């Protein structure tokens, strides 16, 4: 579990290096497992508080790909 948590933290730090704010487990992500939001110069990824650590990594990667798709 600690190893999985460390991977998620490293992934979160990597994504934040792009200037994206990442919230994991702080909200319900608008009823979804995760959400990517872009408003002007602010990009944000929210991962729902209702999922476990194993699933949060895949949700975080999924939402990051939404960011990449938006940028291209």
Architecture overview:
- This protein has 2 helices and 3 strands.
- The radius of gyration is 12 Å and the shape is globular.
- It has helices at 2-16, 53-71, and strands spanning 20-27, 34-39, 42-48.
- A hairpin with a 2-residue loop joins strand 2 and strand 3.
- It has a 3-stranded mixed sheet with strand order 1-3-2.
- The longest helix has 19 residues, at 53-71.
- The mean pLDDT is 87.
- The protein is 47% helix and 29% strand.
- Helix 1 runs parallel beside helix 2 (53-71).
Structural class: alpha+beta
Alpha-carbon Rg, integer: 12 Å
How many strands appear in the DSSP assignment?
A: 3
Give the oligomer, counting copies of the same chain as homo and different chains as hetero.
single chain
Tell me, briefly, the overall form. Answer: globular
Helix/strand order:
HEEEH
Task: Please give the largest β-sheet.
Answer: 3 strands, mixed
| Number of H/I helices | 2
Q: Order of strands across the widest beta sheet?
A: 1-3-2
Average pLDDT metric: 87
- Beta percentage is 25-35%
Helix content: 40-55%
- Terminal-residue CA separation: 35 Å
Low-confidence stretches: none
Provide a concise account of the structure shown.
Helix content is 47%, strand content 29%.
Keywords:
72 residues, alpha+beta, 3-stranded mixed sheet
Topology summary:
Blueprint: H1 2-16, E1 20-27, E2 34-39, E3 42-48, H2 53-71
Parallel strand pairs: 1-3
Antiparallel strand pairs: 2-3
């Amino acid at each position: 579990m600690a190893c999985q948590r460390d991977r998620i933290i490293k992934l979160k730090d990597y994504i934040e290096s792009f200037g994206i704010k990442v919230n994991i487990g702080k909200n319900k992500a608008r009823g979804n497992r995760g959400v990517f939001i872009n408003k002007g110069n602010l990009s944000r990824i929210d991962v729902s508080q209702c999922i476990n650590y194993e699933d949060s990594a895949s949700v975080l990667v999924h939402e990051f790909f939404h960011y990449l798709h938006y940028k291209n």
